[in-house]
DNA sequence: AGTAGGATAAACT
DNA sequence: GTTTATCCTACTT
């Protein structure tokens, strides 16, 4: 079951929490790369100094976030890593959820190849975890880059599906990598699946 | 287990 | 010219 537009048409905090356990799918040439989401972060409104759109900043790359919910926002950080976000909330209300980590479900060979240029069987235990345990890593594993910025997640190619009802507890804590964000750096806006090996930072 | 530094380019000032 | 929602490697304890 693909998640409907309404799922995304809410505040980022709710969407971030409920995205845990959902499955992110990227179809390439008929091949499915899929990952169960285990860690997310909410970036919520103009008061949030950690967000690109803080203070109501509205530049060309941010237009998608000011648009309709259920679209992707993909950007490049540190000149080499992509970050995948889901746009939430209504038009002109900038909110988004960063997908920070997941566990591979489908297309493991392709992921191993993209991340390490090795077959899955050649990977060490650490490398298997390293496939998708971070925002930049998961984008490399799932072949997500800026060409997918603005993609409709209710369309074809890149979308999210309902997961398999696995039970887990949600840990709520501070976000990662936003030390510049003054008081916002301590906001409890990161969520992850308790005990999951693929979580980027415990 | 922790700390340090470098890679590397788009976006923004 | 500065900053950056990261990752990897190497070195120290």
From TrEMBL:
One of its GO terms (biological process) is base-excision repair. Gene3D superfamilies: Methylpurine-DNA glycosylase (MPG). Keywords: DNA damage, DNA repair, Glycosidase, Hydrolase. Pfam families: Pur_DNA_glyco. It is an enzyme of class 3 (hydrolase). GO terms for molecular function: alkylbase DNA N-glycosylase activity; DNA binding. Its EC number is 3.2.2.-. It comes from Parasphaerochaeta coccoides (strain ATCC BAA-1237 / DSM 17374 / SPN1). InterPro entries: Formyl_transferase-like_C_sf, MPG, MPG_sf. Belongs to the DNA glycosylase MPG family. It comes from the Bacteria. This is Putative 3-methyladenine DNA glycosylase.
């Amino acid at each position: 079951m693909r998640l409907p537009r309404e799922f995304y048409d809410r505040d980022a905090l709710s969407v971030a929490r409920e995205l845990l356990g959902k499955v992110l799918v990227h179809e390439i040439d008929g091949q499915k790369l899929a990952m169960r989401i285990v860690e997310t972060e909410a970036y919520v409104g103009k008061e949030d100094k950690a967000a690109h759109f803080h203070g109501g900043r509205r530049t060309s790359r941010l237009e998608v976030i000011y648009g309709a919910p259920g679209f992707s926002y993909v950007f490049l950080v540190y000149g080499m890593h992509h970050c995948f976000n889901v746009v939430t909330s209504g038009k002109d209300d900038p909110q988004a959820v960063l997908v920070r980590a997941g566990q591979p479900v489908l297309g493991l060979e392709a992921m191993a190849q993209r991340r390490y240029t090795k077959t899955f069987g050649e990977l060490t235990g650490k490398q298997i975890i390293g496939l998708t345990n971070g925002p930049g890593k998961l984008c490399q594993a799932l072949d997500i880059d800026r060409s997918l910025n603005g993609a409709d997640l209710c369309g074809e190619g890149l979308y999210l599906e309902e997961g398999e009802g696995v039970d887990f507890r949600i840990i709520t804590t501070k976000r990662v990598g936003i030390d510049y964000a003054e008081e916002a750096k301590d906001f409890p806006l990161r969520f992850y699946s308790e005990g999951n090996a693929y979580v980027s930072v415990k």
